[in-house]
Amino acid sequence: MSDMNIAVEGSAASNASSRGNTKADLVWMLGLYGTAIGAGVLFLPINAGVGGLWPLVAMALLALPLTFFAHRGLTRFVLSGSTRDGDITEVVEEHFGKTAGKFITLLYFFAIYPIVLMYSVAITNTVESLLVHQLGMTAPPRAVLSLALILGLMAVVRLGGQFIVKAMSVLVFPFVLTLMGLAFYLVPHWNGAIITEAPALSDAFNGDFIKTLWLAIPVMVFSFNHSPIISSFAVDNKGRYGAGAEKKCGNILLGAHVMMVMTVMFFVFSCVLSLSPADLAAAKEQNITILSYLANHFDNAFIATAAPLIAMVAISKSFLGHYLGAKEGMNGLMAKALREKGKHVDIKQLDKVTAVFMILTTWAVATVNPSILGMIEDLGGPIIAMLLFLMPMYAITKVPAMRKYAGNISNGFVTLIGLIAMSGIIYKLIA
Asked: From residue 267, how far is each of 226, 235, 273, 308, 330 by CA, in Å?
């Protein structure tokens, strides 16, 4: 899933002269690219490959249009606001009223908060697997291990938001390069089991194929999502390009998404081709990242050492980035509630309440150890789909400033993907 807060660079670029526009565009393209590749990618190969070859091929074909059209739609929505610097919440209030603005704020929180919970489970399982399989140690009780890790991450939070943003900016591209290095390193281990075990194309499109693709779409929505940065991206480029911002944003997004899809799907295919569908099913059952499973699966010192460390850094980075977003959302909700009651708002006190709430809930969830992919399918993907896929498409039918985008075939595609992602919840209830 994706990290946030490359907007610092984008804001700096907004002050560039017209001669610096090309450089600013490149900054945003690389920022969007790096932001979109986070720890969520570490779960995509498991879900993508567990159903066999043909669902994987379908996902590869869907990845670029799914990502590009959805994020372009949200960008257009933010750009449709009447003010120069109106962010997504302000634009929602302008188009749909203050009640809708409050709802979107709440939805944003619930889009980010489950991701923090997922990563608390993921970091616990990654460290536990490292201790047992790579270090040959007996892992401490899960409640103790998860609490120690979460408190350690919260200690980093105490260093401040700006420190976290800078740390994430520094770590993004080494993480991407390391993933690519590992993907190339796995090439000699490709065994083609997923190809040899694949049914004939004429026999592939059965109930299992539909089920696999259905449940994979929420994971794809989650893994390729970088919607939190879109508001800053749109606002920055609106200030720079004015009426030409929509076209410019589309070009920047397309460049970033082509790079992202090529990078992510090569990593996915390299992992899947190195394992069998049975291996991927085992990884899903063990509730660990693909990197932890690779470290345990191969008798290879490099993979055994590098893979868990990469996973730990990636998950920690994503946990911290999403914690900042969740904290901002929760503080905003509590502050609005207090102001409506005429009470004084103490930001430091809100930070303490949020921190205690986050520690207790992440600790509880990490100790229980629910399925990470299950949480993505049931919570992360569907909620993100509401914001990223369905809200902008709804706005096209209701908001005068958005009606110029009506009639595009891509609108139907985005709406369909959004509904499928949300329907994963229904599938789980009736399956």
From this structure: 19, 32, 10, 16, 35
